[in-house]
Amino acid sequence: MKPLISLSNRIMQRYLPDPFLFVVILTLVVFGLGLIFTDSTSIQMVQFWGEGFWALLAFSMQMVLVLVTGYVLASSPIFKRFLGFLASFAKSPGSAIVIVTVVSMIASWINWGFGLVIGALFAKELAKRVKNVDYRLLIASAYSGFVVWHAGFSGSIPLSIATEGHPFQDLIGVISTGDTIFASFNLIIVAVLFVVLPITARLLMPSKDETVTVDPSLFNETAAAVETEALTPAEKMENSMVLSVVIGILGVIFLGYYFVKNGFALNLDIVNFLFLFLGILFHGTPKRFLAAVQEAIKGASGIVIQFPFYAGIMGMMTASGLAVVMSEAFVSISNDVTFYFFAFISAGIVNFFVPSGGGQWAVQAPIMLDAAQTLDASVAKTAMAVAWGDAWTNLIQPFWALPALAIAGLKAKDIMGYCVFILVISGIVISLGLLFL
User: Which ranges does the record mark as transmembrane (predicted)?
Assistant: First the structure.
């Protein structure tokens, strides 16, 4: 495999543009496809693009906070020691690759936002401690765990159809998570991926002369010094633990109330809230906390600039009907045996242009659910086929990689050569599971 891996990395390094240029090119591609395959005019496509451009503002801010609060928490002394303890189990480059893949998959299955941040932060800690480990593969392995998120506790599609009053209740009723997330076919696919993906990542290790390592000293953040002789009341407050402890305890009390009331129901807001207030407590003083925030915010530029362009793409895909055209094309060639497979593949393709699980389901659900009933297929399995497709092509979609790349200090082209192989292997596993389970 090493010659193929080397070739893949060279191709990505040479031809994969910066994620910003990628989203610009993707915008033009969708614009052209809309003109070719729908009745939309060029003026209408521009209108759809502009009207959808700011549709992800709230989500963009959530993703910025995922990056910032996750980084702040991980840079705290307590959390550094915890990540260091986990990293101590890695005794070689190969074991580091395997461990980071497994940890990322566990975290992503629990909650997608949690997984995105923890995987990348843990990979950085491993890079500090394990000599001669390829840093690009380490981050790619951490990101690869994200492929299981939509089959886990935070899967937006299975959670949506399990909620009373969801948009398609009149068509399919309420579908329990026992028939989706905890269905045997889904759990088997997840279990197989937990075995196959770490092995795949381990086999992707490049030859020694092509291994790219980093200097561990580059990861050593300098904590803000505590001023022992503050000259003003303001400086005393900045270096005091009292305010941090008080506000941190308030945050912990709310979290306790939330979990007692809702159980272990994580969503993006709760993950950010948890990271934020633990970060405040663990840094001790406001000055140290704010210094960590200032360092973390440097990596958020890609999210701030690129997410509006993806919102514009989603606007063109949905308003023009292009997403529907793509979905119907796959349904038209399906039968009762291949339907789940083609639902998976179509969702993977649509995900390139509508990289939002909830948004993609809103577009594809009417076509897929109607086809499932026509073919007498399982509605629950159809929903999970779409969910798996949405998660699958995230492996080569820079949209979701941006937080991990910002934490790692890498570019998309640095990891995508590896991600392509992981995409193929995971796609085979998921496809076989949907076809035969």
Answer: 20-40, 52-74, 94-123, 135-161, 181-201, 241-259, 265-282, 303-325, 337-354, 415-436
| C-alpha atoms less than 13 angstroms from C-alpha of 294 in its C-beta half-sphere | 10
CA atoms of 269 and 147, how far apart (whole Å): 21
- Type of residue at 402: L
**Does 391 fall in a domain?**
yes
Nearest one of 125, 136, 116, 141 to 64, comparing CA atoms: 116
d(CA 120, CA 88): 17
**How many CB atoms lie under 10 A from the CB of residue 169?**
13
Distance (Å, rounded) from C-alpha 338 to C-alpha 214? 46
Whether 224 is in a domain gets the answer: no
Contact in structure between 15 and 419 (CB atoms under 8 Å):
no
- Cβ–Cβ < 8 Å for 341, 435: yes
pLDDT digits (tens, 9 = 90+) for 322-350: 999 999 999 999 998 999 999 999 999 99
The reply to whether 237 falls in a domain is: yes
CB 140 within 8 A of CB 183: no
Which residue type sits at 243? L
Backbone phi, psi, residue 118, to 5°: -60, -40
pTM (two decimals):
0.87
Residues of the domain holding 330? 1-31+64-213+233-436
**Any domain includes 315:** yes
* 296 touches 144 (CB < 8 A): no
Number of domains in the chain: 1
